[in-house]
Structures
1.
Amino acid sequence: MFFHIGENVAQRYPAQRSQKSAEILVSFALDRMGRVLSASIVKGSGDNVFDEAALAMLKRADPVPQPPPMIADEGLSFTVPVIFRVKGKS
C-alpha cells in the first residue's frame, strides 16, 4: 500500500540545516479516522534537529487521509522513511 502524507504541505526542511541531507525511519499508528495515535523514531539520522522535524511533520499532517476500510485494525501501524534533501542534490 502506498501512503502519502503530503510532503509539500507537512514536511519542512529545518532552516538551520540548509546544506545537509538526512534520512530518518519513523513509525506511527493511526486510528480509523486517520488521526495519528503515536509516532516514534525507529532509526535516527544522528542529528536531533532532523529527527524532531520528522516527528513534527507527522503532527502537522494529523489527521492524514482516512485508511481504506478493507485494511484490518492491526494494519494501521506504519514504518516509513522521511528523507530531507538539499534541492538540486540527490
2.
Amino acid sequence: MIGIKEISSGGSVSTVVDPKLVFAVALKTFCNGIILAHNHPSQQLSRSEADLTLIKKLTEAGKLLGIQVLDHLILGKYGYYSFQNEGVM
C-alpha cells in the first residue's frame, strides 16, 4: 500500500465523488490498482444503488487508465462489506 487519501466528505445522506480526483491521486503515485472505501452514517453495511453506480463508473474509468479497481469497501463500526468478496465486481 502506498497511502490513504480522503477524496470526499459528505453529509448525512450523500456525497459527491469526482472520478478525476480519485484517479489523479492514483496517477500521481503510479498505482496499478486502487481500493476504494467509504462508510454509511447509518452504519448499515448494505450497498445502495448509488454505490453500485459509482463502482461501475470508477471501474470503467480505471480500465481506460490502466488502473484496476481491486475492491470497494463499505466500512462500519462492527464490520465491512466487500464488493469483491460478494461478487459484485
3.
Amino acid sequence: MFGGICFLVHGNMACGIIGEDLIVRVGKAAYEKELVSAHARKFDITGKVMTGWVMVSPEGHRSEEQLKAWLQKGIDFVRALPPK
C-alpha cells in the first residue's frame, strides 16, 4: 500500500514503511503533538496530506527504542478502533 509495506491490527492499518521512512497512524487528536516530535513530518506523498498519520525519517526510528516507541503509538491508536 502507498508503494510500501503496511501492518494491520485487527484489520486497521497502524504503520508501514515507504522507502526508508516509517509511517505511523497516530489519529487526528494526537496529530499536531506528534508532528513536533524529532524527525516527524506530515504524511504527504501525493500532494494531499493524510491527517492523523506522520512520516518519520530514518534518524527517528534508527534505534530499537525509537522504533518501538513509534510502533506502539500506531498500535495503541488502532486498538481503540473497531475491528474490520
4.
Amino acid sequence: MTMSGKERAVLRADANRLQATVHAGQQGLSNALIRSLDDALRTHELVKVQLGKQVDLPAKEAARQLAGATRSVVIQVIGKTATLYRHNPSLERKPGALPPWKA
C-alpha cells in the first residue's frame, strides 16, 4: 500500500490525539500481540502501539515487522511508540462521518 506524503501527514496529525491501543509487553512481538494489533486495525484503522522495554529490536525495526505481519503501513515512530494504519474497505461509512479512529 503506497501513500502520498499528504495522506501520511493527515494521519500523523490525527494520531497525536490517540492513546496507545496495543501494548507490547514481556512477550515482545508475539503472535498474541500481532492478533491483537490485527483486530485493532480492523476496527479502528489507525492504531498506536506502545513498545515495552522487553522488545529487543529498535522501535523502527519492530514497527516495520509489525506492519509486515499485519499488512499495514507505518505512519510514524516516536520513541517507543509506533503508529500503524490499514484501510478496511468493509467498515460501514456514512457520507460526512468521522473516520473510525475519531468516532
